[in-house]
Amino acid sequence: MLIADRCAVSIHYTLTDDAGDVLDSSAGREPLTYLHGVGQIVPGLEQALKGRAAGDAFRVDIAPEDGYGPRVDSMVQVVPRAAFQGVARLEPGMQFEASGDQGALSVVITAIDGDSVTVDGNHPLAGQTLHFDVEVTAVREASAEEVLHGHVHGAGGHLH
Predict the structure, then answer these.
(1) Neighbours of 25 (CB within 10 A)
(2) Does residue 33 sit in the same domain as residue 62?
(3) For 11-66, what is each residue's pLDDT tens digit?
(4) 129, 18 Cβ separation under 8 angstroms
(5) What's the pTM?
(6) What is the span of the domain harbouring residue 56?
């Protein structure tokens, strides 16, 4: 069976950056299982998987526009320390949920200067080319319930 919309797909992958450093990998774990065609993985990888079959192995480079998007400078802001009420100690690298014009947004503290805290709402991989080594381990037709729920059930998927 070839990968197409409404297929349950399992892959093993290794994601590296331009320097070849491993950013994420399924090695030593269960394969990643997802429902194809509903945006559960980055668009460029989903497109590269379309038409492939179990047993296929390949390498693909995903441009930022087809991955986590370009970096957006306006998503880096300086906010007052008072915005973090109830948090006794702030450090660069800490992650928080913030409310923005478009709803909840995950931000990371990148710098602290006195009472000013710089936060970045960009995805950590925004602006980066993603390099994937992928092996397709399984492809099957998704059940009607999986399609309705928008995710794969059972092993490697959602349990409920």
Answers:
(1) 13
(2) yes
(3) 999 999 999 999 999 999 999 999 999 999 999 999 999 999 999 999 999 999 99
(4) yes
(5) 0.83
(6) 7-68+125-149
